[in-house]
Amino acid sequence: MAVEQCLVIIKPDGMAKGLTGDIIRELSRTDLVMAGAKVVQVTRELSEEHYQHLKDKEFFNDLIKYIMGDFHHTKSVLALVYEGEKATEKIRKICGATHPEKAEPTSIRGKYGRVHSETGVFENVIHASENAKEAEREIKLWFRPNELIHTIFPVERKNQKMDSFFWK
Ligand code: ADP
Fold first, then answer.
1. b/e map of 68-90 (b: 16 or more CB within 10 Å)?
2. Is the C-beta atom of 127 inside 6 A of ligand 1?
3. What's the burial of 151, exposed, middle or buried (CB within 10 Å: 0-12/13-18/19+)?
4. What domains can be seen in the chain, in order of their start residue?
């Protein structure tokens, strides 16, 4: 079985509610390996690129505000890369359904998520890539090659410096 990756984001509500430890503990119940981790200040450009597939939805503007931390007085999220067989499937099962009220009660989103009463945005504390292809797109968006424990995807050197590898 092929090894694949999954990008996980602990969203601003997860950060504001102090859930990073609980979420990482839940994810460590899998046999997956953590291959990257960093705190990120989410820009408008990054969030719009990340959620490009939802740009026509009526909730898109509020979703961008949510992921940028505007509703939770925090500018940071925690970005993680997990790696292993069926990584996206295993992690998304632990996350639960997108709608927090429809998520399994014992899943991360079932336990900690809510629908915001004014915006209607699903504040579901965690993002996980939908499949391996989407994971590759997202990891390349959120991480530089030298921020991961090994060279997961092909790289190219753009100038002479050692830290100058870019995704091909
Ligand atoms: P997932 O995060 O489960 O892969 P999507 O990519 O469809 O789901 O949606 C991205 C995020 O947008 C969700 O995690 C949630 O925060 C928000 N969202 C999705 N659908 C809705 C909706 N119908 N109403 C409000 N917010 C939504």
1. bbebbebebbbbbbbbbebbbeb
2. yes
3. exposed
4. 3-147 (3.30.70.141)
pLDDT tens digits for range 45-73? 999 999 999 999 999 999 999 999 999 99
Q: Which atom of ligand 1 is nearest to the CA of 53?
A: 6
Q: How far apart are CA 113 and CA 142, in angstroms?
A: 23
Count CB atoms within 10 A of the CB of residue 1. 6
Closest C-alpha residue for ligand 1 atom 13: 98
User: For 18-49, b where at least 16 C-beta lie within 10 A, e where not — what string?
Assistant: ebeebbeebbeebebeebbbeeeebeeebbbe
Task: Please state the length of the chain.
Answer: 168
- Which residues does the annotation mark as catalytic? 127
Rounded Cα distance between 57 and 80, Å, is 26
pTM: 0.95
CB of 95 closer than 6 A to ligand 1? Answer: no
- 92 CA closest ligand 1 atom index: 3
